[in-house]
Amino acid sequence: MTTVGSSQGSATPATPTKAASAAQTAPAPTTHGPGSSGHGHGHGHGGGGASILHQPKAVWAVAFASVIAFMGIGLVDPILPAIAEALQASPTQTSLLFTSYLVITGLAMLITSFVSSRIGAKKTLLIGLALIVVFAALAGLAGSVEGVIGFRGGWGLGNAFFISTALATIVGAASGGASSAIVLYEAALGLGIAIGPLLGGLLGSISWRGPFFGTAVLMAIGFIAIAVLLKKDEKVDRVPTRLSAPIRALANPSIRLLAFTALFYNMGFFTLLAYTPFPLGLNAIGLGFTFFGWGIGVAVTSVFVAPLLTRRMKRTTALTGALVLLALDLVAGGLLISSTVGLIVCIVVGGLMLGIINTVLTESVMMATDLPRTVASSAYSAVRFLGGAIAPPAAAALAVAVSPGFPMYAAAGSVIVAALFVVIGRKTLRRVDAGGEETEFEEAQALSVGEE
């Protein structure tokens, strides 16, 4: 079968990477990606028997930096009202902090595999971290909401370079098999999503600038750790990926279907995340603890519940069910928009649904085609982040134009559209439901781009 990635990101049998060698001696899981568990429909974990905690220092360095990177998703949530007040900005203007971050992250995803496959994982990670340090610090120093919005865009650029490379790096360097590495990555993702709002709330109670400076300091520590502990890339292990590969990947029906499913789902996701801090009316610490509960929900269902569901039912069934439940939760949020307690419950319950959806969507993308995973992920992410970029300012504008509860209803409608994509496209996703069978060497090939 000829695919976009067949000549763009795969290792060749004559020069297997270290990941390929590892995959030939240990069972490989069926999925890879942020939030994926290695569990599939009818498939369990593979991998070696070593403890997940017994990892090289380089793996812990990348995992630590991953926690900080994922903290950036919810870090600004608790300080949105404070920023609006301090910089005399409207909720719509303030919500653009998410938009600039996600637009740049999504667009940059289209070039990350091209860059990392040429300069190597270590340099790509360090560039990403350096950009985050610089732009997070500049955001903290900004004197206007426009400045913060612009610097958040630079932060998104750094984040794209980092997160697109971190998983492959952890898998390439971890002991105990690829399954243990992916669980470790999941744990870092969940921890970052949960801690981000809490840290944002605690530092934001001192000053809205605090979370930005805190991120810059933590990322600088991560930069030093990776610079010291991660080995230099071997040029011979790199297989260049074409710049056009992610765009061409969208021609694949499965990737395109999943990308647009994620686009509409992310509108609901980021309405819940970026709009609800305003009607809640809590201070920074109150918002921090609220979204800490949300993040814990995302982490728990992502790591534990989603794999349980996909072992017992088809992925498309689990995905459709979770999307419908999320839509109902968003409707409840709209009805309870004036109740602080009721809206908090809806936010936390929404987190539980988000964890399932994130994991199942990522697993589906990773096994939907024969494309190299970095290429498939880049194409998918570029589209899905646009949904997250559109939702925050649109929700704030709808609240003013219609009613405070209306953005939640609109978000629910968007999530239902995502569910319809999955239901109507079930035949296109047959491979996803079948488990995406592949050989161990093909698994290693899929991980080869951008690895150490």
Automatic annotation (TrEMBL):
MF annotations from Gene Ontology: transmembrane transporter activity
Biased composition (Polar residues): 1-10
GO annotations of cellular component type: plasma membrane
Biased composition (Low complexity): 11-34
Presence of keyword S-adenosyl-L-methionine: no
Keyword flag Nucleotide-binding: no
Transmembrane segments: 58-76, 96-117, 124-143, 155-175, 182-206, 212-230, 257-278, 284-309, 316-335, 341-361, 382-402, 408-425
Topology versus the membrane: Multi-pass membrane protein
Primary residence: membrane
Biased composition (Gly residues): 35-48
Signal peptide region: none
Region of interest (Disordered), residue spans: 1-48
Gene3D superfamilies given in the database record: MFS general substrate transporter like domains
Compartments where found: Cell membrane
Start and end residues of each Major facilitator superfamily (MFS) profile domain: 58-430
Protein name (record): MFS transporter
Natural source organism: Subtercola boreus
Lineage: Bacteria, Bacillati, Actinomycetota, Actinomycetes, Micrococcales
